[in-house]
Amino acid sequence: xxxxxxxxxxxxxxxxxxxxxxxxxxxxxxxxxxxxxxxxxxxxxxxxxxxxxxxxxxxxxxxxxxxxxxxxxxxxxxxxxxxxxxxxxxxxxxxxxxxxxxxxxxxxxxxxxxxxxxxxxxxxxxxxxxxxxxxxxxxxxxxxxxxxxxxxxxxxxxxxxxxxxxxxxxxxxxxxxxxxxxxxxxxxxxxxxxxxxxxxxxxxxxxxxxxxxxxxxxxxxxxxxxxxxxxxxxxxxxxxxxxxxxxxxxxxxxxxxxxxxxxxxxxxxxxxxxxxxxxxxxxxxxxxxxxxxxxxxxxxxxxxxxxxxxxxxxxxxxxxxxxxxxxxxxxxxxxxxxxxxxxxxxxxxxxxxxxxxxxxxxxxxxxxxxxxxxxxxxxxxxxxxxxxxxxxxxxxxxxxxxxxxxxxxxxxxxxxxxxxxxxxxxxxxxxxxxxxxxxxxxxxxxxxxxxxxxxxxxxxxxxxxxxxxxxxxxxxxxxxxxxxxxxxxxxxxxxxxxxxxxxxxxxxxxxxxxxxxxxxxxx
Length: 523
What we know:
Layout: H1 21-36, E1 40-42, E2 44-46, E3 49-51, E4 56-60, E5 68-73, H2 77-94, H3 99-115, H4 117-128, H5 132-157, H6 159-162, E6 171-179, E7 182-186, H7 194-205, E8 209-212, H8 219-231, E9 239-241, H9 246-255, E10 259-265, H10 268-279, E11 290-294, E12 299-303, H11 309-321, E13 331-337, H12 341-353, H13 372-388, E14 390-393, E15 408-411, H14 418-421, E16 428-434, H15 437-445, E17 449-450, E18 452-456, H16 460-469, E19 474-477, E20 494-495, E21 513-521
Parallel strand pairs: 1-5, 7-8, 7-10, 8-9, 10-11, 12-13, 12-18, 13-16, 15-16, 18-19
Antiparallel strand pairs: 2-3, 4-5, 6-21, 14-15, 17-20
Helix pairs in contact: 1-4, 2-9, 3-5, 4-5, 5-7, 11-12, 15-16
């Protein structure tokens, strides 16, 4: 049933305060519930059919590698083709469902997820290695995406009232937004609920059907989301859940002539590979595929001599080491003017050394990195860093039955160094010295990426200079460079950081729709 009442203005979901005993108890209970489901098997979903396969993705707890979070059935190429055909069939029906009704499914799902917030967060604590606050923020963002995109679809359906076309004598003219078709959604493991939910619900509320291929590192939480959408009554075939290998399933669907769009979040290398495949016109293809790609980042913070040193240092540490630096927005670089360089470095090291490392379920500040491959890659970059800068904190493995790495700080690092230029995606911070704020900003811009950045200063002229010169999609003044909020900080970057889609903003649904103009002559 479609609600008829006036829909309230969007507001962000409040984060849980885990200093409150009732919230701690609720989270602990949710963790016990999630642990009771360890090792469970999950199907893939094509239309209304749930299929168990012999080949399965085994999801491991990165904080305790002896624990299997779940075993998730894998699709092969034949199943991917079946899903595509089912998606095409369902699209013909789904596109005719009113925007208001499509939005209602999102409102209902958001309400249900809000009631079960800790249940979703607890799964992420075990599957992705997030501590309580990081997991809670992920779930809150997922709720925000559904609430925001539902309202945006309603707004787009009323675009003639908000932004009417110029009318001329003898005609009635209007504009409407129609869906594209079947899309492939390929979300990342680092925000395994929020980004999965955001990318998928933006596509379906716009009237498209989706083939969802989750990350192989976090397929269980993705399944939980798809099950939630089924619970609120979303028609079968609007979302097909098809975990599988990138080579067999991902590439096949990206190159498929009936694929209308690919929505991807992940590394630069994979994003460029998808873009190349999508650019090739397959036999029978009658459109140019859209690629919505959010890729890597080599983000940083610039500090001048007028800045609040304590606040700047805290922002640097939070941006570098929140969720072990495994965010595309993570501040893995800092450029500090020489007048306050030693003070800032000292404060950063002191705060870094206070960070405690341990099991995410016990809510330590620093947990594991995602998997063995990432663990080995990050440690190899730390060895490179020891040749390129001065090691001041961390520098190696941390104890624990998982992929734990010490938060690591290098100082006196050249802007040309590999640890300044290459995305590490781990708890590694490189700090460089600049003669003044202008040189510091130039060093910040010396990267192929352009996602997030921060500038710390109390000088308004310098702030204006930074706003004009720092080339990144999301620029923050006197605050950390992570923690974008839906509707508040629409998110997306420049250059090799992607197509600057501005997820969580008023432009985002345009990427999943196409405007149609209808002009009718009057008598």
